[in-house]
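Model it.
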Amino acid sequence: MSVARDLAALKDSLKTSDRMPLVFLGHGSPMNVIEDNAYSRAWSELGQSLPRPQAILVVSAHWMTKGTTLVDVSAVPRMIYDFYGFPEPLYQVDYPAKGQPDLAREVVSLLQSHHAEEDDRWGLDHGAWAVLKFLYPGADVPVFQVSIDMSRGLDHQLEVGRALMALRDRGVLILGSGNIVHNLRAMRPGAQPMDFAAEFDSLFTDRLTDRDLDALVDRDALGALLTAAHPSVDHYLPALTVAGASDEKDALTFMTDSIDLGSVSMRSFVFHAA
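Modeled.
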């Protein structure tokens, strides 16, 4: 099925659902924010299909912590331009959304067993605002981020997702932002998909479709392929959080399934009521 048909079918499904969907977007290069391309257009189309949430909880690859899971409780999240050497228009992008301190503090309680703590210094990094700009361009939905604890195993992020699952029935959209394959060392402009990138992307897609989440967090079994796809797993973990917040009642739709620059998977997916 083509991406266009996938999005059309997803739009029809979302119209009938009261339960908030789960979204993972492969955000790729920050340049997608200021370019009119297949990715930015797909994000805009998805945004037009999504229901309006009460709040958005973002798990971004770009907020990494160790030994704790931080939750941003700021009332007005600050913009973070966490990249270097890009054109000036990128540093002028603004996404003036408000935070949701009360809900954020409740999330701290939900994640108490995951060593969660309040934080009011982070804000919105580009993993968040680069895609929110297209999903909800009016910046009129409260949003806050939850960090990824890099000191824990892959299964930890599945557990975080499971702990957050109940928020879906309270109008909260859980959004993960990263990449299914993310190897910047191997990246080459205009390159064809590298073998390891295509193999890991395909493996992830098959296992997620089968709901074999244990396979997606089995570092020993994934072995060298995981290391090639993710020299650091920061861009992989948000996908696991989103997967963990899903259940057997969810349908699964994939979108933007290409591999950019040879080694960055732009594959995105949405869990939604069937």
